[in-house]
Amino acid sequence: MAEAIQQLVLDTLAKEGEIKDTRTLILPGYKEPAATHDSQIIILGALNSLSSRDMITYTTQETVSHVLTQEGAQIALQGSHEARVWAACPKKGEGAPIPPKQLQEKVGAETAKVGQGQAFKNKWIGKEGDGLVKLVETITDTTQLQMREVDSTGALKAGEKALAELRKRKLVAQRKGQWFTVRKGANFSTSTAKPETDLTVDMLTSGSWKTATYKKYNFEADGIPPIGGALHPLLKVREEIRNIFLEMGFAEMPTSSFVESGFWCFDALFVPQQHPAREVQDTFYLSDPAESLPPPKDYYERVSKVHEHGGYGSTGYRAPWSHEESRKLLLRTHTTASSASMLYKLAARCRGEEDDSEETIKREGAHASSTVPGAGKAGPDGFRPAKLFSIDRVFRNETMDATHLAEFHQVEGVVADKNLTLADLIGFMRVFFTKMGITNIRFKPAYNPYTEPSLEIFAFHPQLSKWVEVGNSGMFRPEMLEPMGFPKDVHVHGWGISLERPTMIRYGINNIRTLVGHKVSLESVERSPAVRF
Ligand code: PHE
């Protein structure tokens, strides 16, 4: 259709030199000229396409015409309200006058109400007793005639005053329209063949390139967006959280050891060897190699002793110590395993040991080093205060569902200093979560084998309008810190939160599988906006 109209415009121009008024065109498949609003819209499409190729030029003429409203259309079809009232009344002297109630039933409440007044005024009907009768034999329903005229011509011969009256009565409405005057353009031709966009080998060998028309370069066109890498939403949120830690003076712990031993993941944290978290349904164990390298000997002995027999003011668990349990290799179930080994290194000088050199750290990784990033100056007892954080992956042998995967990310922080109190931990939490955009938080006493007291952190979720758990925290126990070599007045508090939960809230995701795993759409990753807390 579009092509055919373009052809019609070109042919008409070729024949007549100019199209003065596009309302005179007879579109393909029609008998009448294209006078209607819709047909001019279709013509405009063809004109725009032709003028973009400079084949024609055109000017636009605005028109105002009238169309019927819904009520106007009903009058055109059934007559005015007064005519319908008149028609419903019996002739004077022929039959019983119609009571108003019966009239209402016959023509409808609205027509009876509006029509009666006007029919009386026109002297078409009159009262007889309690009813109404016709006073005249025939009527001329001017309103209906006007509606029919507007419907077919868009105007009234009677002129603007009569139209204004009909507009006031809401029987007709104005409609802006347009029509066009068309002239030949610089590239006028009667062929609508699309201009070439490429010079091809075929065109060169056949010689058709000489006569072909070419599409002009459009230097204003937008370029194709380059395809580049995009950060996954989790990484964007990780970056924001990392910035919060850095601006609060924390240093990042090395956390590359996904595989840990039972010793560092549990024993060093004073998690009893019979603790349910250690069972295979909660923890992934390695079969090859199945055993870890031995942990530092003296420390290992102190840890096994505090578990089995107690010490440092604790009675311990008084259960037999299993060397095998301690040496098992596993996928770490929390990043607190890394925190434990970092704290052990932080206590190196308290034990009278030296720091390792930067080279040793580089060569042998985190575990080999007793240098702790960002640690403060050592006091006379060798203790160095430190604020450490990590954001990395952990693994749990869980049943997967919409909010649980077998691997996820933990955000973890530890602060080691002299005489820290629970008030320091709570105050710190408030600052940290406020920086994450979470201002309404509450604490609930909880239990962790390695902290006492322990606090779960709840935040009010405005969308869910309920309190949701956002983290877990506590003061590390002396049974954990003192075997490492820390003096008694050194207190360490720590907390952990998940990275996935704030990310899902941030991006309005309610199924974790749309965020992590093989079902993630790369497109959504590319489109996901940056995050600012
Ligand atoms: N490891 C705890 C968890 O996995 C978080 C935590 C870290 C709690 C440090 C207290 C201290 O939930």
From TrEMBL:
SUPFAM superfamilies: Class II aaRS and biotin synthetases. Keywords: Aminoacyl-tRNA synthetase, ATP-binding, Cytoplasm, Ligase, Magnesium, Metal-binding, Nucleotide-binding, Protein biosynthesis. GO terms for molecular function: ATP binding; metal ion binding; phenylalanine-tRNA ligase activity; tRNA binding. GO terms for biological process: phenylalanyl-tRNA aminoacylation. The keyword Zinc does not apply. InterPro entries: aa-tRNA-synth_II (IPR006195), aa-tRNA-synth_II/BPL/LPL (IPR045864), Phenylalanyl-tRNA_Synthase (IPR002319), PheRS_DBD3 (IPR040725). It is found in: Cytoplasm. Residues 385-529 form the Aminoacyl-transfer RNA synthetases class-II family profile domain. Residues 354-379 are annotated as: Disordered. One of its GO terms (cellular component) is cytosol. Its EC number is 6.1.1.20. It is an enzyme of class 6 (ligase). NCBIfam families: PRK04172.1. Belongs to the class-II aminoacyl-tRNA synthetase family. Phe-tRNA synthetase alpha subunit type 2 subfamily. This is phenylalanine--tRNA ligase. It comes from Trametes pubescens. The lineage of its organism: Eukaryota, Fungi, Dikarya, Basidiomycota, Agaricomycotina.
